[in-house]
Amino acid sequence: MSGSTKAMTIVTCAALVLISAYTVALGSSGWLWFGWIVLMVATIGMAAADSTETVTAPRGPRGPGAGGAGPSPR
Asked: Does the predicted TM-score (pTM) go above 0.70?
């Protein structure tokens, strides 16, 4: 995970704690929970995009004849 993804995860968790405390102290607010869900979805999307960057490394030929279509030897 990159640094920005870790920071976004920490902010999302901190927001969950703060919204939970607000809900216990002053009562539920649907807009706060909706905002937290949007933040959580954005964090999941960031983590998913970050994890695909390391997986999609290009691969080269694996052996003789694995180079694909090309001129045939005569």
From this structure: no
